[in-house]
Design a protein that fits this description.
The termini are far apart. The strands form two sheets. Strands 1-7-6-5-4-2-3 form a seven-stranded mixed sheet, with helices on both faces. The protein has 14 helices and twelve strands. The chain is of the alpha/beta class and 396 residues long. Strand 5 (179-183), helix 8 (188-191) and strand 6 form a beta-alpha-beta unit. The longest helix has 32 residues, at 245-276. The radius of gyration is 22 Å and the shape is globular. The protein folds into two domains: 7-254, Type I PLP-dependent aspartate aminotransferase-like (Major domain) (Aspartate Aminotransferase, domain 2, 3-Layer(aba) Sandwich); 259-394, Alpha-Beta Complex (Aspartate Aminotransferase, domain 1). The structure holds pyridoxal-5'-phosphate. Residues 85-87, 90, 111, 113-114, 154, 158, 183, 185, 205, 207-208, 217, 219 line the site of pyridoxal-5'-phosphate. Pyridoxal-5'-phosphate is lined by residues 85-87, 90, 111, 113-114, 154, 158, 183, 185, 205, 207-208, 217, 219.
């Protein structure tokens, strides 16, 4: 892979390690271990493994290394560590950096499992966590302290699609010497410029757009060579959250087409969001790429697109939301996102069911809220499907 190659070229060819057979499609090295030529060679490799020398799949594997190199090339970081799931990446990035007595500032609007890691697990080990409204820059300024080691946020919050200003929050964090860890799932690696905007560590659930076809769980932690090798790798390889070679192969093939898929999804999302504006069955249409979004200017600056997810607030609460879901013919009811298939979710009764009513209110998770992850189907068909389902809501 050449440094000057453009991203789309890197996504097809980056990281490839071709075996002696000259295969076109990347090989799945479905092996946990590796054979050494001699006892001396084994000793030498344990002492210091070279760039393309492997010891044990929990530490590294050629197929996994291909995925890591390819996603690092896309994100523009020096290194990556692939993990068994998005949550292994989030928890690994944070746990490997923090110790008892450290302080963390986090946005409050988080994916449920991220909230659990910050609120329930880190605090159990003596890390203090302060939660703030991620869109309120003064709240970030007030919350950081000299002992703040990490700030954490999702660049676009799930499911209400509020956007955090990466550059400004990074400046605030760096002002006190804290590292910025960004869960960038909703921004997607295609539209992310998080590193140039100041993020130190970027984390993805590869389960979402990177696979993009609903097959495998995975995740990745991206950062400097120093951080990945000295901080993340020792933690991950000894605690066991590494990615399997088969999953890495699925994700590697996902990266080949991610740029095409995610751009098509974002175009479709834009079309659906525009078609729905002002619809009489809706209280709100939230889409970061539409001028009606409260942070539209920031979105344009930060991502240049609204991404692949829309939130709809349907008039008539849960009953109306359920009628809408049950009337959909193309869009499936599920809780993944970033998939080639369009997926609708009712957060209040599924992904965010665990939250109290007060917490749901605070996060804007109303009974009528639907999260719509837009896929790569034909835009006209998608608009027609959503329209006929809204029709079914109002006909009741
Ligand atoms: C899905 C998701 C995760 C967790 O990813 P898994 O692969 O399901 O473990 C973390 N953060 C965000 C924002 C997500 O959407």
């Amino acid at each position: 892979m050449k440094k000057e190659w453009k991203k789309r070229t890197k996504l097809v060819h980056g990281g490839t390690r071709r075996s002696q057979y000259g295969e076109v499609s990347e090989a799945i090295f479905l092996t946990q271990g590796f054979v050494y030529d001699s006892a001396e060679a084994a000793e030498a490799r344990f002492l210091q493994a070279g760039e393309d020398e492997f010891i044990y799949a929990r530490y590294g594997n050629p197929t996994v290394a291909m995925f890591e190199d390819r996603i690092a090339a896309l994100e523009g970081t020096e290194a990556a560590f692939a993990t068994a799931s998005g949550m292994a990446a989030v928890s690994g990035a944070l746990m490997s950096m923090l110790k008892a007595g450290d302080h963390v500032v986090s946005a409050r609007a988080l994916f449920g499992s991220c909230l659990y890691v910050l609120e329930e697990i880190l605090t159990r080990y003596g890390v203090e966590v302060t939660f703030v409204d991620g869109t309120d820059l003064d709240a970030w300024r007030a919350a950081v302290r000299a002992d703040t080691k990490v700030v954490f946020f999702e660049t676009i919050a799930n499911p209400t699609l509020e956007v955090v200003d990466v550059q400004t929050v990074a400046e605030i964090a760096h002002g006190v010497g804290a590292k910025v860890v960004v869960d960038n799932v909703f921004a997607t690696p295609v539209f992310s410029r998080a590193v140039e905007q100041g993020a130190d560590v970027v984390v993805y659930s590869a389960t979402k757009h990177i696979d993009g076809q609903g097959r495998a769980l995975g995740g990745v932690i991206l950062g400097t060579e120093e951080y990945i090798r000295k901080t993340v790798e020792p933690y991950m390889k000894h605690t066991g959250g590494s990615m399997s070679p088969f999953t890495a192969w699925v994700m590697l093939k996902g990266l080949e087409t991610i740029d095409l898929r995610v751009r098509a999804q974002a175009d479709n999302a834009q079309a659906v969001a525009e078609a729905l504006q002002g619809h009489q069955a809706l209280d709100r249409v939230i889409y970061p790429g539409h001028a009606s979004h409260a942070q539209f200017e920031l979105v344009k600056r930060q991502m240049g697109t609204g991404g692949t997810v829309i939130a709809l607030d349907i008039k008539g609460g849960q009953a109306a939301a359920f009628r809408f879901l049950n009337a959909l013919e193309i869009v499936v009811i599920s809780n993944n996102l970033g998939d080639a298939k369009s997926i609708a979710t009712h957060p209040a009764t599924t992904t965010h069911q665990r939250l109290s009513d007060e917490q749901k209110d605070a996060l804007g998770i109303t009974p009528g809220l639907i999260r719509l992850s837009v896929g790569i189907e034909d835009a006209e068909d998608l608009v027609a499907d959503v329209m006929q389902a809204l029709e079914a809501v109002t006909q009741q």
